[in-house]
Design goal:
- The chain is 27% helix and 38% strand.
- By secondary structure, the chain is of the alpha+beta class.
- It has an eight-stranded antiparallel beta barrel.
- Helix 8 packs across helix 9.
- The longest helix has 23 residues.
- The relative contact order is 0.17.
Length: 357
């Protein structure tokens, strides 16, 4: 019995020895519960790209927008005669899309700066400014002024692209008020017709025709020379100059009509039925329709002209309204070609969105 008890005691001692390290280890401590923040966090939203940056563009700025323009084209011949074209006053005919480009700005202090500017535009004019006769029909006509605007069948159109440095007064950036002045060069193209005889081309050409001589050949020669000197050949077209100087020779009158048609100079306004009927009556119906058109076209001066380096001036006032800018400006482009002085004046009101790139 003792031996049995001893065996049991020995077995218990061995089990206790084996189990002792397990009980001797520290029980794992409970980690303190971490506090969970249930407060909603504000999400960070990246700012939307700005159309107008306060500091201005990194490379350049484009100006897409709409403008309403008032244009005035004055062409002075070497002999002192003038043709003054202007556009209609209706907004629908003068509202156009435009696209300008501006360089980064170089600021001099807080109030002055400089940038390079490329200004572009188109124009179309179908009215002409005429001087009122000194012998006005009524006193009311005299009170209206010395000139008036009328549509007499002439029409000019064209486009320009200016490149000029601009000095401005105002803070840097596209969202600042500023006043600026620029001087540079322009590429200008003009095409169309204009009256250098103050709306009296039919009377003057008729007088030249009757006083040119007794024969039809002499009268055509006088009419061609008068048109070459007074009506304008600004671009110095050698073909037109030759045909006008030799108008009575061979088929030059008909060739002049065909050449004018081939140059795209025939428009609804260039066809004057009164002058066609008048010259048809004077010549006894001996002219063909193309020759009648050629004779009637001599009443209007041809003002096709262009320049690559015309002097240009630009004065403007710019006001920002959010992402849109409002600009009021005056543009003057002036040059001389073949002793003809050409000057284009433009007054604009524009709304555009500066986009910095």
């Amino acid at each position: 019995m003792r031996i049995l008890n001893f065996k049991y005691t020995y077995i218990l001692l061995i089990l206790g020895h084996l189990c002792h390290p397990m009980f001797a280890q520290e029980l794992p401590r409970e980690r303190p519960s971490e506090s969970i923040d249930i407060t909603p966090k504000e999400e960070k939203v990246s700012p939307a790209p700005q159309v107008k940056k306060e500091s201005g563009p990194r490379f350049f700025t484009i100006y897409p927008g709409l403008q309403i323009t008032t244009n005035n084209l004055t062409i002075t011949s070497p002999y002192g005669s003038k043709a003054i074209m202007t556009n209609d006053t209706s907004i629908g005919k003068n509202l156009r899309f435009f696209f300008d480009v501006k360089s980064p700005e170089w600021q001099f202090g807080e109030s002055w700066g400089l940038f390079l500017f490329n200004k572009n535009g188109e124009f179309q004019m179908s009215s002409q400014v005429l001087k009122r006769s000194e012998f006005a029909a009524t006193p009311e006509d005299s009170e209206k002024g010395s000139s008036y605007t009328a549509s007499i069948g002439t029409q000019t159109k064209g486009s320009y692209s200016m490149f000029l440095p601009v000095l401005y007064y105002g803070a840097k950036g596209n969202d600042r008020y500023r006043i600026g002045f620029g001087y540079g060069i322009s590429r200008l193209q003009i095409k169309g017709t204009s009256d250098f005889n103050n709306g009296q081309s039919l009377q003057n050409n008729t007088l030249v025709y009757f006083s040119g001589g007794r024969t039809e050949e002499d009268r055509l020669t006088a009419l061609g020379n008068y048109s070459l000197l007074s009506s304008g050949n600004i671009d110095g077209d050698p073909i037109r100059a030759y045909l006008l100087s030799q108008l009575s020779k061979g088929n030059n009158l008909e060739t002049l009509g065909i050449y004018s048609i081939s140059q795209g100079e025939v428009t609804p306004k260039s066809l004057d039925p009164i002058s066609v009927f008048f010259f048809n009556s004077l010549t006894g119906g001996q002219y063909s329709p193309i020759e009648l058109y050629a004779v009637s076209s001599l009443l209007k001066g041809r003002v096709n002209t262009s320049s690559q380096f015309a002097r240009s001036y630009f004065v403007f006032w710019e006001v920002p309204f959010g992402v849109v800018n409002w600009r009021v400006g005056v543009t003057v482009i002036d040059y001389i070609q073949n002793n003809f002085d050409v000057q284009l004046r433009n007054f604009e009101t524009a709304l555009y969105i500066p986009i910095n790139l």
